[in-house]
């Protein structure tokens, strides 16, 4: 591991650890609100593909009704998705649903900044258009993303391909300063109410 990558990993551990401690009241309120509104657990887990192409379990606050994919076919969350609960829509609109991913960062499955991890089903669809997706496995996926900041959430293949192009730009030009800038700009965007 290079000094730059070691610095990135140490920063991930410190920031995610402090984040979980400082934001623990938000975790508690969100978990209670989810349980009050709809039956089921507060935490949603799903297998994603990450560093070195290995699967890992990603954690989020549950923002949808239970069994949102009960037909077994993976589906992306679209704007005004009927499967979203009221609390879930609020959490998602303010990106609070992603707070449990701080644990993913702390344990090393993710980084604070990287590409957004995807499910294998969608990765295979993307690779049919651009096989360079596999290059992303050289880095850890992130909670914050250069592509999400400038391209928003992806609900179509066209947006997925734009996101991939931006993720590869990040991979090829990554610096610690770039990470700091992405975190800062994303935080400002969220606090000012920007919808991704």
Description:
The protein has 196 residues and is mainly alpha-helical. It has eight helices and four strands; from the N terminus they run H-H-E-E-H-H-E-H-E-H-H-H. It has a two-stranded antiparallel sheet. A two-stranded parallel ribbon has the order 3-4. Helix 1 (3-22) packs across helix 4 (101-107) and helix 2 (24-37) runs antiparallel to helix 3.
> What string gives the helices and strands in order?
HHEEHHEHEHHH
What spatial form do the alpha-carbon principal axes imply? globular
Poorly predicted segments: none
Structural class: mainly alpha
- Our estimate of the beta-strand percent is 5-15%
Terminal residue distance: 33 Å
Q: Give helix % range.
A: 40-55%
User: Quick one: biggest sheet?
Assistant: 2 strands, antiparallel
Record field, number of beta strands: 4
Mean pLDDT reading: 89
Task: Report the total helices.
Answer: 8
Q: Strand order across the biggest sheet?
A: 1-2
- Radius of gyration computed on alpha carbons: 16 Å
Relevant terms:
196 residues; mainly alpha; 8 helices; 4 strands; 10% strand
Secondary structure layout:
Layout: H1 3-22, H2 24-37, E1 43-49, E2 55-61, H3 86-93, H4 101-107, E3 111-113, H5 120-129, E4 142-144, H6 146-151, H7 157-173, H8 176-191
Task: Describe, in short, the structure shown.
The protein has 196 residues and is mainly α.
């Amino acid at each position: 591991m290079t000094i730059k990558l070691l610095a990135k990993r140490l920063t991930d551990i410190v920031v995610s650890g402090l984040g979980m401690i400082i934001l623990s009241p938000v975790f508690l309120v969100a978990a209670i609100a989810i349980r009050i509104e709809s039956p089921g657990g507060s935490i949603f887990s799903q297998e994603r593909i990450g560093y070195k192409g290995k699967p890992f379990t990603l954690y989020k606050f549950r923002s949808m009704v239970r069994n949102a994919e009960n037909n077994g076919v993976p589906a992306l969350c679209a704007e005004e998705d009927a499967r979203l609960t009221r609390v879930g829509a609020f959490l998602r609109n303010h990106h609070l649903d992603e707070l449990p991913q701080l644990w993913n960062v702390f344990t090393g499955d993710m980084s604070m900044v990287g590409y957004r991890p995807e499910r294998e089903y969608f990765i295979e669809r993307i690779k049919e258009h651009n096989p360079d997706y596999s290059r992303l496995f050289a880095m850890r996926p992130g909670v914050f993303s250069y592509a999400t900041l400038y391209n928003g959430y992806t609900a179509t293949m066209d947006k997925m391909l734009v996101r991939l192009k931006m993720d590869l730009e990040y991979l090829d030009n990554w610096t610690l300063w770039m990470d700091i800038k992405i975190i800062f700009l994303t935080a400002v965007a969220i606090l000012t109410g920007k919808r991704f």
